[in-house]
Amino acid sequence: MQLTHFGHSCVLVELDGTRILFDPGTFSHGFDGIDGLDAIFITHQHPDHCDVAKLPDLVAGNPDAVLFADPQTTRQLNADDVAGTWTAAHSGSGIEVGSVTARFTGGRHAVIHPEIPVVDNVAYILDTAEQSGRFMHPGDSFYIPFEKVDVLALPSAAPWMKLSESVDYLRAMAPRVAVPIHQAVQSDAGTSVHYGRLAEMKAAATEFVVLDAESQTTV
Question: Could you tell me which of 100, 106, 134, 217 has the fewest CB atoms within 10 Å of its CB?
Answer without folding.
Answer: 217
